[in-house]
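for the writeup, i need someone to sanity check this before i put it in the appendix. the sequnce is what the collaborator sent (i think, or maybe the updated version? ugh). structure was predicted straight from it, no edits. if anything looks off just tell me and ill rerun, i have time this weekend
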Amino acid sequence: MITVALAKGALLKDSVRCLAAAGLDFSALLDSDNRQLMVPSPCGTARALLVRNADVPVYVAYGQAQLGIVGEDVLREHQLPVAPLVDLGFGSCRMAVAVKASSGYRRAADLPAHCRVASKFVRCAETFFNQLDLPVELIHLTGSVELGPITGMSEAIVDLVATGRTLRDNGLVAIEDLFHSTARLIGHPLALRLDQGQLQTIIDRVAAARLEAR
């Protein structure tokens, strides 16, 4: 049986729709009364694991799931040995450096050396500031990173930005993008090599549906 790791939250609805195009029905995951974390497809050939966003590539990397759907931001941050297969196009957002709107900073290079930067994505942030050759002190937070500049704990943040409303509502502004992120279909490399066609059929159907949607 094929196992697919899906992320709770913002990507779930589109992920379920995407897999429906490949013949896998995981609509039960969208039922507000559902409490199951592992749901079989009615066709009997696959099941879905409902996990936290950051855990999707972990389940795929360790072979507990042969396929998964997760944001490019998570893949860049965790850098696990999974195979990127299809850019699914949904879940579009950007990883950005943001500061207080009143700060006067207009680009990341304007930040002072050794200033504090708060982020959930410290690896992405570290890579970015290393490329700028700008030494900073990274503070790892797991939520509400906007409070960093508001409270004075940090000069800036690195975080995902979709509409930018949360930044605006908290007096912050994005000054530079690190990269853009969309949802990706990923696979377990060994499972793909040993595949006898079942995984490739799903991949091809998902890719075809993506092309039709463009």
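The helical segments are 12-20, 56-61, 72-78, 122-132, 147-151, 165-169, 189-194, 198-213. The radius of gyration is 19 Å.
thx in advance!!
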